[in-house]
Amino acid sequence: MTSQFLPDPPADLRPEFEIRGRVAIVRFLRELQARRRLVTVYAGDGTDAFLVTSLIDVGTDGMLVDFTTASGPRDALLRAGRGTLVGFLEDVKLQTDLTVRGVIDSPGQCLLDVALPEVLWRIQRREAFRVQPLARDLAQVVIRTRDGGERSLRVADLSVAGVGLTLPVGMTRPTPGERWMHSRLEGNGRAPIPCDLKVRNVREGSRGPADAVRLGCLFEHLPSEVQRA
Questions:
Q1: Are the CB atoms for 177 and 199 separated by under 8 Å?
Q2: Residues 6+ apart with CB under 8 A from 209
Q3: How far, in Å, CA of 154 to CA of 15, rounded?
């Protein structure tokens, strides 16, 4: 299990990450359910016993989690009576504590019944606000390839500090630290914005290996007038 999927320790859960209130918590959890995002549930306070699963139903006082799993994590979670859930919406990490209320067995499926948490943490460690371009913007970054050609990468999100990109099918994965000089940011009906990029991270999409590969890139040496644009 890579570190990004592990629960953040309590000391690292900043007050600005905290979400309280039944309506807000239900909204985020239902979005996980609606988008069919996989979540990881850890038994008790540890990280040794866990299961990768999904939310089946989110109500106003509790939720049902797919509990069709191996006996090891199942028994550990039932013994502890509580656990920690970690999931992702885009690149934002959601984490919350779970209290087990029981198990519901039905033909072909087993469900874990847990109480609606009182607190949910939306963990996004970014100093710059990030936005997602509208589909009609056709936002993309055009980079220069080593053979003198060009390649376009779709923009997933954008901030004044950097840009999230989706790796095109068939393109070789870059390595963190790789630099793309003399690139440009393009959008429908907008003048191209010149930029130099540094690849910061390369990761699978939050829905697993079948999802598109995502790149996190930093802008380098960005003049103030380009930042404003």
A1: yes
A2: none
A3: 33
